[in-house]
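S.,

As promised, the cytidine-5'-monophosphate run. Input:
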Amino acid sequence: MQSLRGKKIILGISAGIAAYKTPILVRLLKQKGAQVRVVLTPDAHAFVTPLTLSVVSEEEVLSSFVAEDKDNPVWNDHVALGLWADLLLIAPATANTLSAMAQAKSNNLLIATYLSARCPIMVAPAMDLDMYAHPANQKNLDTLASYGNQILPVGEGALASGLVGKGRLLEPDQIVERVIVHFNSALPLSRKKVLITAGPTYEKIDPVRYIGNFSSGKMGYALAEEAHALGAEVYLILGPHALDLSNAPFAVEEVVSATEMETAVFKKFPTVDFAIAAAAVADFKPLAPKPHKIKKEEGIPSIELQPNPDILARMGKEKKQQFVLGFALETQDNWKEALAKKRRKKADAIVMNSLTDPGAGFASDTNKITYIGENEKPKRFSLKSKNEVAKDIWNEIMDQG
Ligand code: C5P
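Predicted complex:
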């Protein structure tokens, strides 16, 4: 799942029957975090009401050059509107609107906005079978494509006329997908897949007790958020945590033990481009967890341990195209120890943080790191928020990877 957080989109609606789908389109774009302003052609009012669109967009809907209040006329500034937007999406685009766009016939606010816009333009045509196929219409589409406008395909199926074939408006979710791809294609990690482990693991002693650690998962989560913001498809494999995942704009798989984490990781690992092991995986687990709660009366138990799988070391061993980054939590600033870990686990880079540095390490919102990349020279960073640290780490990876 990808977001459109902070993106400003003008949705231009022209007068086709498919305009009835546009309130859903607005809603889906908004759900992804975009701000949406709607411009309707005058005839589109017959198919969808400005009131519906203003409610779902939470913005005033524009449709004429001058705001309708006769006593207080206001010019609807299409130039400012065109400059405001990151994307002008015209859906549905009728044959008439396509023709006006191709010929700069500025007879309504939508065409004027189109002609003034400096942002990318995306067009989703919708019309009946023969209208769509007509050479005059196809020529207009070619002309618009030659201006750099992105022309979306039409859907195939039942048309309003009763005919069946090409000409349907793409479904709103398909249009949103195209919009997301459009924004992502400009980003440095677009089309890249990123796998991140985060949080602690819990290793069962009995049904109520476990061996765990104080990792919060915050550093891994911040790395996942940053990778997402850079356009990557992100999979976060997360141990037990207290994070709020309700707005996570990427896939999260929650696991408990190291073995579960390993299984989840190696389902994804072969296909990813980057793998970051930020989880504090328990090194050992009880050899034979008890099926019942160990009673005090049974005396002080001795718990025999066995090693857990080393997920990072296995990534290092099995990597092909993947860039693998590990973390080294040291109890003192010992970058040589971290470098030895990088080599031992065959990681491409290692990030060291020291538990003894104030503000660095597990549960805090800040961290202080040393990055050791390909050249194996330690690069020290100052104490920063984990979000800022995530940016630094991704900058280093992209310089190296
Ligand atoms: O060996 P150590 O635990 O100090 O190494 C830390 C790095 O190795 C971290 O990146 C951690 O996520 C990873 N690790 C792992 N599986 C383990 C132990 C550590 O992936 N069982």
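The chain has two domains: 8-185, 188-400. The mean pLDDT is 93.

- D.
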